[in-house]
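S.,

Sequence below, as promised.
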Amino acid sequence: MQTKTCRLAYLDWLRALAILCIFLFTAARSFTHSDKIDYIMNSSFIPLLFFLSGATSLHMALKRNNTRMILLWIRRLLAPLLTGLFLLLPLLLCLEQPEVVHREGFASYYTTALRRALHPANWHYLWVVVCLAFYMIMMTPLFRWLRTASARKFQQSLYWFVSGQRVYLLLLPLAVVFVTGLLTGASGYVFVFLYWWLLLAIGFFCMLQPGLMDSLERNRRCSLLALLTAVALVMAGHRYQAGSLVALLVEPFHAGLWVFCLTGYAKKHLDREHRLRTYVNLFAWPFYLLQQPLVIIIAGFFPDHRLSPLIVYLFVVLSTWLSAVLIFNLLIKPFVITRFFFGVKPGTPPVTTGKVVKVPMPQSDFFY
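The prediction came back faster than expected:
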């Protein structure tokens, strides 16, 4: 394989943008329970997060053997998942029922919340982490296959999708899974699991054949036009019964068009280095884990919403972001153990030899 393994700046910026937008929509839930918020997230930024995870997993697999991939999976996904299930999610469930916690006591109800946190129906935003953990296990045979001659041939065959607008044909499996789920009445969990896995696989293959990413950049205006048309048709289908059939035919491609459009424009305009990128890359995953509990805590101070909803929303957003930054810099970043349980790569401490000199530490199979 001759695929480049260097980090691509636009993927990091795009992942930070996806997590930021998920946070903004999550904060809006405190002021409205409209299904439109969940629909927008599930059709745009959450699919983008899975697409990017598939793209970056290729670089991880090419730079590591099977043992180091397993250790990376433990640090990046399993440890944060355990932190979420046994610490953050029970806290979130306690915050959702303050009256019960006040009546029974925090210690007593926390045990109940811990049992509830292990039920899939209560996983909330941790569903993304759970699915990513399973997907990486499912991708293990694919990672091994990358180093074979057949992978090289497959990479060359993917070049057929590069010319013209053939890249959009990669969205057909999404449509098949979507329509099949509707016709067979499959379980919602099964449908979503397969749908998100296909998005991750598309991201993996787009990075396997770099020409596909170039095609997304070249067709970014076409993706934007198709996306705006799809959004208009879906909105019309939800509002008018006459357009429901058209919306049903367009909706399977909705998430894919969001992903292709944002990726194309990001590759064109965000593929540049900045001194903040390293920090943002470290901060993004802990911020995703912390944002929903912090939003509920801070929004709980405004039960009556006597102020303007916009002012309260801005206050909640800014306060949550500032609180997450403080927690990250004071409690997570300085300590190896907290870095591990929040999926943050440990730093390389300076070595003192008469004067303070930063010496690169040798790579560890566990952390790198």
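The longest helix spans residues 66-96.

Coffee later?
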